[in-house]
Amino acid sequence: MAHETTRAKLDWLREQRDAVAHAGTEAAVEKQRAAGKLLARERAERLCDPGTFVELDRFVRHRESNFGMLERRPPGDAVVTGYGQVFGRRVFLFSQDFTVFGGSLSEVVAEKICKVLDLAGKYGCPVIGINDSGGARIQEGVVSLAGYAEIFWRNVQLSGVVPQLSLVMGPCAGGAVYSPAMTDFILMVEGSSYMFITGPDVVKTVTGEEVTFEELGGADAHATKSGVAHLTAADEEAALEDARLLLSYLPQNNREPGPRDEPADPIDREAPELDELVPDEPAKPYDIKRAIEAVVDEGSFLELQPRFAENIVTGFARLGGYSVGIVANQPHALAGVLDIDSASKAARFVRTCDAFNVPLVTFVDVPGFLPGTEQEWGGIIRHGAKLLYAYCEATVPKLAVITRKAYGGAYDVMSSKHIRADFNFAWPTAEVAVMGPEGAVNIVFRRELAGADDAGARRGELIADYRDTFANPYVAAERGYIDDVIEPRRTRPVLIDALRTAATKREPRPPRKHGNIPL
What we know:
By secondary structure, the chain is α/β, with parallel strands linked by helices. Helices cover 39% and strands 17% of the residues. It has helices spanning 2-21, 26-34, 40-47, 107-123, 142-158, 178-181, 200-207, 213-217, 219-226, 236-247, 288-295, 340-355, 373-378, 380-393, 408-413, 437-444, 446-450, 455-469, 474-478, 491-502, and strands at 54-56, 79-86, 89-96, 127-131, 164-168, 171-173, 185-189, 194-196, 231-233, 302-304, 312-319, 322-329, 360-366, 398-407, 423-426, 431-433, 484-485. Strands 10, 11, 12, 13, 14, 15, 16 and 17 form an eight-stranded mixed beta sheet that branches. The chain is elongated, with a radius of gyration of 27 Å.
């Protein structure tokens, strides 16, 4: 009889587990499938290494009785939470379930999410949020809003403590967008995910603009216009793989060093093609990504925000097996100038690397800041200062290579020795000066040229003389502002040796609550 009772209880448990796994209605599940979207539990399981996902709070049910909600109380409510492993490392996660009440956030859903956030902080593990929700659960009123705020508060407490990733795999609108916005990285799926504060209907009512969901807040819009999305993927499987790859460049928490693997290719490998990468013509563009890919471990470069503010390149790579953050001016776009968007993009990335002990490698080819009323009135002073602040604040190892131009204040900003970069190198093609030769000659010799009969020829002579005298790396090297002028082909072994030297860097911070970055 006792065994029969035990078997009955086990059967009941299995039935309940099956009910949890199929909490959404059949119609809702079919609709999710028809849209080419995975179910919440499937997403969690595919994010983790096979067989490692452990679900928490699977039997929790909502408690609200308003508007007849007690008639349907699916176990687990509208979110799947738990922990698992990614490449053998522990992570916590939550996955909103759009098949249950449209994934709406209730008091219980918020409690489940808050629980895994707390556990991630307690055990020092990354946390991944998979967002697919219609928003706050109207039937629960202010209780739902309170749940959002509890999540926001935890996002802030965990910021810079453990890596936080957000995968947007469906709608994420209204106040709900602020949780992903405060995490470290946002990944979106093309054609099926969107984020916005107010939807197309409200936009049309208030401004008269007619815009689609995709145009307003789709993956493409946030990848190219707003810069909100760090990575986009063609489908959900690819987005989940991107999230796994991204985590591999980050430590478990801020108390651990950045990850290090065995180098994928020889440390002393040279890249002869770099000797001819920089064109002889000062104004001719080239692709800095060719330099990055030639220097870092083969196939290791993961670019972030590749279609936003393309005049600066950011991303993770491995250098001699070390995980490093790459920041590089891109001469192929706007000649590599710094502007509002590029400064903000790079500043955020620099601070993220510094928070998680990932060394920084900077490739410099910057002619200055973008001039014009649009930039000045848009706050280039304030936004440009973000990048300067970020580099000054960073205490991780900082290496820099000047490939060509390093002009004016932009030279100072881009990880110069004066803001405490550890090792600064230059290629022979580097030009370190207050400004370009043409501009300098027009200012310094303005009166002489104005009265000269052969002003054109004289200007050419002065420009050539200025370039020979100042537009080179050796004046800066004489003063120790550049540690060495190196052959471009040797950039990889030189940087790896410098990185190994700086790996034990310890730099105390001044006693203060926190700095006041010019936001």
